[in-house]
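Hey, quick one: can you model this chain's 3D structure?
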Amino acid sequence: MKEQNLKKKITNATKWSTISQIAARLIAPITNMVLARIISPEAFGVVATVTMIMSFTDMFTDAGFQKYLVQHEFRDEDEKFKNANVAFWTNFGISIFLWFTIIVFREQIAILVGNPGLGNVIAVACVQLLLTSFSSIQMALFRREFDFRTLFVVRIVAVCIPFVVTIPLAFLGFSYWALIIGNIVTQLSNAIILTVKSNWRPSLYYKIEILKEMLSFSIWSLIEAISIWFTTWVDVFIIGSVLDQYYLGIYKTSTTMVNALMGLITASIVPVLFSALSRLQNNDEKFNIMYLTTQRLVSIIVFPLGVGVYLYSDLATKIMLGSRWSDASGVIGIWALTSAIMIVFGHFCSEVYRAKGKPKLSFLAQILHLIVLIPACIVSSKYGFWPLIYTRAWIRMEFVLVHFIIMKYFIRMPILKTLINVMPTLISAISMGILGYFLQQINESIIWSFVSIIICAIFYFSTLFLFPTMRRDMIELVKKVMPKRMKDKIKTVVCKAD
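Sure thing. Here's the predicted structure for all 498 residues.
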């Protein structure tokens, strides 16, 4: 009964998480399309630098307590809320300290990241630290209880804010200030809605013993988060320092666009997967089944998406960003292709480590990747923008290899089993890519591009349907979205085929 209840919670949470991500990914591109035509790549470069600083300091305000509150097994509600209180006041205290530190050293920080004269911009933007300290704990508690319906409301409000704040300010000529103010208002709305909706409210309770217990887990999550930050932002720091804000804007906007597109799948899965794996951490068999099933289902969409964006990167750039972003096409293509591989084989591994209560493994993976990543980016940057871009994209395959080794020897997940698990989708996606390449040689018109995309999609799913395992998985996905009458018809056809 308990297992059925957990399965029901996971299904319901996945549904709301997916709905929120789909809605957000449908609205966000419209915002980007408008802003990319109003604001210059240089302005996006400035915001990328500010975001880099903000994300670094934000790690310390959270201090890994979010993951602790989701992963830890509490005796009762009272113990859970006491831990939440300690986490909140610790976060809030750290955020105040960091914000004042940024204010005092704002000009030095601006020079360090390659933006001299923008110290005040950085100081104002980092007021978000105070706001995120209010929302992070509530968000963790909602995720723990699989209450993604509430998080859906929060997300929808957040993605709509640019239409009433950011875009109007951009039209008025506020440039990067439009983006910064929009981000601040978004964090403010998150804090207000989550606080109102939450059953937990901050109270004047604090206990050092609880903090020590949380830190025993969270300190490694924090160290891991710092290593992830370096992995994520080292390229932005190098581009901002070696090149200029134009190339930084091109690079960061392009990769953000691809990540947002891929996030349509991963962002809805990861929070639910971590919560589910955390509940199954003591049952290795079910734990592994949950991981492999998630990996296989995600690969059905992610592999063809990565190959498709790589093939049609020019079209995607014209639609999403406009004519003055033509340099972004090459970045978008190669980043989408390598992202597909990284997501399927490496993205979920960190959730596995944390769900098992072993964040040290994730930190180890990040360090082993950084040892290769940083020298590769520094050396390639000396040869220009494009050598750096291709090096940065393909060096992630080393990260995949690191995850393979750690999963095999510490989680006991065989590499071959992982590869076989997604082999049908990989074969189908590669076949689709070959077909798409030859279709592009026929005609270069936009109309033919859309026609060829449809042909590729039909070919991909037809090929995938030839594999019995994937056929069953696809039917399970269809059952969740189609009316009952249509489900029965499809099931009948498949049974006859078998």
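One thing worth noting: DSSP finds 24 helices and no strands in the chain.
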